[in-house]
């Protein structure tokens, strides 16, 4: 044996020195073995303490990859990278109760026989959307895929405005999902202008549906024209072609009543105006779990549920339990804005944010001098209310230009991590997306970090 290799410590001794372990033993063992492998293959063999420090850094790095809670200081309420809508406690209680045991997921207590999965949630969703029927699938992309699959089985053509052939977030492009479903795209009008005549020209014997997609993550200004739902609805009825509206966000309460936000089309409003089917996300302005909710005529919903693709896209019990909780909060009507975290964040008055900010700065003691409150604008985010900005308040921390990136990294390394942003030469944390109960934790993290910068 090469004498140098004797300097490699035993795995047992090494793992002992690393305890308490931050990650499962087998993952740590894997990291140690890979490191030892490199040493055996002629890599440098460091001192034991140095070796352990290196391994610890590697373990720390991997532990950072775990899904874990963060403090959202971005001001973006529905941040796709940060998990979109935080769930209401009441909905989570139902998830825990149902997921940790057996449940009536597909069981009918009255007959003692097999029941229909999600029947009660579907009724609640239908009531919220003022629709004949509703159903939930994995997400809104899945909802759209299912709708396209079902309606293009015989006739293939889907008419959509060129202004609505959009990309929504990472990897979701309307034209690509159309293609994946086997539909044939018929593009109406131009990017900035599409009128009823443009749609009319494309209707033919092979038209399956007219699809309208809400421009949810951008807006166009200036020389723009799009066709209203009413006109499209009349046209679709004349030709007996279903009109499908992908709403994206799906606010079931009037966003115009919240903190000066613009009005977002509601599922009920869209159906009233003549859409035959609407679909929207469960985890955007609906404020619930990841899901795609489809509502409309019961004949259509029934057909969608019979489509073989539906089985591959259906929701699991945890999603249905969470949806049930959120739907009941809305239907109770008492204080849905106060109980659904996304709406609570969007509706918080700016004076209240300022008060919280003052309190956090007071709690910082002497290092509070380096932190000011600055007015800012929060966003709904997540591909919703694109033009919407809500006045907000940021904690703005002064630092030298070269210190800003390291400071942001230090905040990301906090326990829990704090995600903020750099603006105007300061590291900023928008308080609209920080839960009030996180304020003391945030103050602790800020003062810890400010001792290092
Ligand atoms: C966000 C969005 C989608 C995709 O929704 P997911 O639930 O993320 O799959 C589809 N259409 C529109 C208009 C959207 O805004």
Fold and architecture overview:
There is one protein chain. The chain is of the alpha/beta class and 453 residues long. Helix content is 40%, strand content 16%. The chain has 18 helices and 15 strands. A seven-stranded mixed sheet has the order 4-10-9-8-7-5-6, sandwiched between helices. Helix 4 runs antiparallel to helix 13 and helix 6 (140-151) packs across helix 7 (174-181). The chain is globular. It starts with 10 loop residues before the first helix and ends with a helix. The mean pLDDT is 93. Pyridoxal-5'-phosphate (PLP) binds at residues 139-141, 168-169, 172, 213-214, 216, 246, 248-249, 281, 292, 383.
Annotate the secondary structure layout.
Blueprint: H1 11-18, H2 25-40, H3 48-63, E1 71-72, H4 89-99, E2 107-108, E3 113-114, H5 119-129, E4 133-137, H6 140-151, E5 157-161, H7 174-181, E6 184-188, H8 196-202, E7 207-213, H9 229-239, E8 243-248, H10 267-272, E9 277-281, E10 292-296, H11 298-306, H12 308-313, H13 317-332, H14 336-339, H15 341-347, H16 350-363, E11 371-379, E12 389-398, H17 404-412, E13 418-419, E14 421-423, E15 426-430, H18 439-450
Parallel strand pairs: 1-13, 5-6, 5-7, 7-8, 8-9
Antiparallel strand pairs: 2-3, 4-10, 9-10, 11-12, 12-15, 14-15
Helix pairs in contact: 4-13, 5-13, 6-7, 16-18
Bound molecules: pyridoxal-5'-phosphate (PLP).
Pyridoxal-5'-phosphate binds next to helix 6 and strand 8.
